[in-house]
Amino acid sequence: MSFCPSRLVALIASGLAAAGFAAEIPAEIPLWPGSAPGSEKLTITEKITERSTDPAKPDRIYTQIVHPSLTVHRPSNPNGAAVIIAPGGGYQRIVIDKEGPDTSAWLNRLGVTAFVLKYRLPEEGHVNARDVALQDAQRAMRVVRAHAAEWGLDPARVGFLGYSAGGHLAASLEFFSGRQVYPAVDAADRLSARPDFSILGYAFAGEKGPRPASIDGLPPQTQLRWEYRIEATPGVKYPPTFILQADDDPTVNPQDAATIYFALKQNGTSVEMHIFRRGGHGFAIRDAKGPVTRWPDICADWMKEIGVLH
C-alpha cells in the first residue's frame, strides 16, 4: 500500500475535529509572513468606505489593500469542511458586507468554517498587478491547508466561493491553480492551491475575442481579464463546480456562465449550473428576492452530493 501524506493529514484533522481538539482559529489571518509579493514598496493606506445611509444595512468596501488576509467565521458545530469566500467589487473594491457575512452565516449553519478573503486589486500600484489577486487566492488555499490539522479542518474539503469579480477569481483559481504566480515564501507554498470544489456566483469569464499580440501596455485590470480568460486546458479535469446566475443580470452576461460551464464540461468535470429568470447582479444572499433566494439550499444539496457535507 502506498503512503499518502495528504490523506494522513486529512484523517488526523477529521479525528481532531470529531474529538473537539481543534485549536482556536485567529479572527483574522494575514496571508503573507511579511509584505505581499510586489507590494513591498507601496505606501498607500487601506481604506474602509461606508456607502450605505441605513445603519441597519451596512455596505462597506475595502480599497487600497496592501495586507491581504482571511477573516474567519467558525460554526458552532464544525464538520471539518471549509470555504474561502471572495466578495466581488469589479476588481476595483472589495464588497465587505453584501457578500461576506451572510454567506459566512449560511455556511456556518451547514457546519462549514468560512474564511472571507480580502485580496489585492490590480489598479492600486502593485508589481505584477494582473497577478496579485490570484497570488492571494492561491496563498489563501495553501494557508488553510497548512493549518488544517491544527484547526480541525479536512485539507481535502477546502472549497472556494466567489461572487462577480470574486467569481472570476474563483474560476481563475480553478483553471490556473498550478501556475506559479509568486515565489515560495515558506513551507505552505509546497501545498496545492487547487480547490476541492468551487462555487461561482455571477462570475465573468474574462475578455472575449482574439487576444492582442501584447497585453503589457493595457490597464492592469484589462491585462488580468486577458491573462486569466477562462478556457479549458485539454486533458485537465477541474474541481466539481456549482454555477449560479440571473438571466436579467445587467453587469455580467449570462453567456459568461455558459462559457465557464462548457469549459468545465469539455474535460469531463462535474458541474451544475442554475440560471434564474430574475435576480439582477450582486444579490448574493442578503439582497436575493424571489426564486433566486433558493440557491443556497440547492447549493447545500449539491455539496452533500459531492461529499463535502458529512
Overall geometric form:
globular
Give the strand content.
15-25%
What's the CATH C level? Alpha Beta
**H-E string:** HEEEEEEHEHHEHEHEHEH
User: Under the CATH scheme, which architecture would be assigned?
Assistant: 3-Layer(aba) Sandwich
- Within the largest sheet, what's the order of strands? 1-4-7-5-8-9-10-11
Q: Give the overall average pLDDT.
A: 92
Secondary structure class reads alpha/beta
Q: How many individual helices?
A: 8
Q: How many runs of DSSP E, i.e. beta strands?
A: 11
> How far apart are the first and last residues' alpha carbons, in Å?
26 Å
Q: Output the CATH homologous superfamily.
A: Alpha/Beta hydrolase fold, catalytic domain
Radius of gyration, Cα only, in angstroms?
18 Å
How many domains would you count in the coordinates?
Answer: 1
Helices and strands in order:
Layout: H1 5-19, E1 28-30, E2 47-50, E3 60-63, E4 69-73, E5 82-86, E6 94-95, H2 101-109, E7 113-118, H3 132-146, H4 148-151, E8 158-163, H5 165-175, E9 197-201, H6 220-227, E10 241-246, H7 254-265, E11 271-276, H8 295-305
Parallel strand pairs: 5-7, 5-8, 8-9, 9-10, 10-11
Antiparallel strand pairs: 1-4, 2-3, 3-6, 4-7
Helix pairs in contact: 3-5
Comma- or semicolon-separated keywords:
single chain; 310 residues; alpha/beta; Rossmann fold; 8-stranded mixed sheet; 3-stranded antiparallel sheet
Give a concise summary.
With 310 residues, the chain is α/β, with parallel strands linked by helices.
Write a structural description.
There is one protein chain. The chain starts with a helix and ends in a 5-residue tail after the last helix. The chain is globular, with a radius of gyration of 18 Å. It is built from eight helices and eleven strands. The chain has an eight-stranded mixed sheet with strand order 1-4-7-5-8-9-10-11, with helices on both faces. A three-stranded antiparallel sheet has the order 2-3-6, with no helix packed on it. With 310 residues, it is α/β, with parallel strands linked by helices.
